[in-house]
Every structure is written in structure tokens, then in C-alpha cells.
Amino acid sequence: MRRLLVSGLTVALLSAPALAQDEVEALKAQIRALQEQMAKLQAKLNQLEAARGGKAVVGVKSPIKIYGKIKMDAIYDTHNMGKDQFITYLPKGDRDDRVTFNMKDTRLGFIVNGPEAGGWKITGRVESDFYGKGGDDNGAFRIRLSYINLNNGQGTNVRIGQDYIPIASQMASTLDFLSMGASGNLWDRTPQITITQELGGGFGVLATAWKSSAKTDGVGMRMPWVGAKLFYKGDAFSTGKPIYLALGGAYRQGSDEVNGVKDDVTDYLVAFEWNVPFNLFIPMAIKGEAYYGQGLTSRDFLVFTKPHYLDGSEVKELETKGGFVQLSMKPFSKVGFNFGAGMNDPDDDGADLAGAYRKNWRAFGNVLYNFAPGVTFGLEIDHQETLYKGDVEHGNRLMASAIYVW
To answer: Is residue 63 part of a domain?
Structure first.
């Protein structure tokens, strides 16, 4: 019996190091596997951050995502197109060609992921570019966006600060910075309070009030623009991208002074907008807007006409109508095309009295090539015509752009 016990203990002692060694090797293998998984997860996280844009900044009170865009435009114009860097309308008689290199559409922004309070998720956003006044070719830093956003997670969203005007909110996909402004696309960014409420089934409503300063607005009206919009957003065609349809309007009333005459005026806007993606052998989309209004200011809508004019002893509102339509297509994974046309068409008699153009229309086409994640090269051609009483101006712009979004 004693020999048997001794033999058993000897076998156990001899086998223990071998078992321990096996466990160590197994643990090492598990650690290597975990390290490989962590490396894959980190690579995937980096890809998601690159696709989404921006980088998270840690070690601050609230997480901040920094993002931006570097853009250079090389531009050739056959006519004065309004501005060297972007197209407005064609002034009379200035038909000299010119070349411009532009970096002012370079942008820098950050999004603050704030706290939750009383059931509301709070975020903030600030974005700037270099189109501020007073700058030379290097540009002057200015605010593009600056707002606080509150969302209760139940379909209610409140935005307070400077953002794009939410009425007639579609944007043409041009390389030109003004995105068909003054040629059928009404837009600008102004301080506002906007409340959006989802109603279910893809429907929603929006109420907004915005006001720029009297100096930049160009009129002395105290009342802000107030507006509302009914919209539908849903994947009606099963493309994976929602269609967007909306009918909105805005209104303000007050008095304005033109050439020393002060009178009551009523300004308003009615706009229908759409963005409809679909597949016809390749991914495609049609978007645009159509509008009718009076008293539209350049500061709020980028029409580059006076909102009011003097007719005898009366101050009247300049009536205008217009819109744009765009077709987008992506035949290849890295190549996309956009084609569009639009116009702003003021009342002829009112335009003559206001010293404005009678019609301003544009057609454009561009091709975009995704060279690498975040890096795009593009070519665009724009044809612009501006009609005056007894005269018409024609101009073309050819531009090439290099864009890096991060």
C-alpha cells in the first residue's frame, strides 16, 4: 500500500508542471486572440469615424467631435459672374473673362455631445468658413452655423441659433458655393428658433421664426419672419433612402422706407420642395423646389434683388416666382453626376422700378470622382443668363475642385 501511495504521489508531482505549462500556453493563445479582436475592432472604429467625419476629443466636460473640409476651386469665367468666388447674377456690360483660385469654402466645425436634462438630449454645433467680409484672398473667418439642439426622443426637436432657413430647404448639388442662389434656390443661414414635431407615419410639422439684423437685412422691419411647414419623409420606393416632400410658407408685416418714403408692406413666401430617390438601373434622385412670394430679401433668401420699391408715392413689394430642379445619378461606386436648372423671375414692371434684373436663370452639370475616403475631385460647367429691360447678358463658368472632408 505504501509503495502504491508513493508511486501515485510521484506521478502527480511529475505531471503537475506539464499541466501548468499547458494552461499557460492556452492563456497565451487566448490573449493573442483577444489582441487580434481588439485590433480589428479599432480598425473598424477608425473606418466608422472616417465615414462619419470628425474625431472625438476626450478629457473635456462634454465629448466634442471636430470635423472640417478643405476645398480649392480653380475657376474660369467668360463674363463677370457676380463674384469671383461664386455666381450671383450677371451685371450689365462687364464681359471680360477672368481666372480665380479660391480657398474660402474651407470649413472648420465641431459638435458638442452635451448632457441629458429633464428628458431632453442637448447638443451644440459651431461651424465656420472664410467668406467673412473684409478679408483678402485668404478670406475672413465667419460663423456659418451656431446652435443649441434639444431632442426629447419622442419626435420633438427644438433648435435655437444660426442654421439654414427651414422653409424651401433643398440645396442644389453644385460645386459653386452659392448652390443656385439667385437662380431658383432660396436659402441662407440666420439666427432662428425652430420647433419640429413628428406626427407618425413619416409626417411632421415645423414652426419657425428667424430674423437677421436690420443692417444686413436691408429693411427696417421689426417683425421677424414666421413660418410653418408640413412634410413627409419615408422610404416609399424601398431604396433605402427616404423621399422628402414638403409644403411651407413664411410671413412678416411692417413698414419700410424707400427713397425717403415710408409705407406699410406685407412680405410672404409659399414654397413646395421635394427630394425623391429611386433606382432606374442605377441609383438616381430628383430634387428641387418651386416658390412664389413678395418682399424676399437677399439676406434671407439670396435673391439679390430689393424686396421693396417706390412706385409713385407708394412703397410696394417686389413679387417673384421661381425654383430649380436637379437630377442626380451614380452609375459607378466612385463616380456621380448632377444636372440642374433654375431661375428667379421677378415681376417685370416691379423689377424695372426696383433697378433689378427681370429674370436670372442658370443650368449646370458636374461630375464628382471619389478618389479616396473623404477625398473628391470634381468638374463643373455653369451657364448663366440675366435678363434686363432691353438687354440680356450671357456667361459661362468652368471650375475644377479638390475637396477633402474629415
So the answer is: no
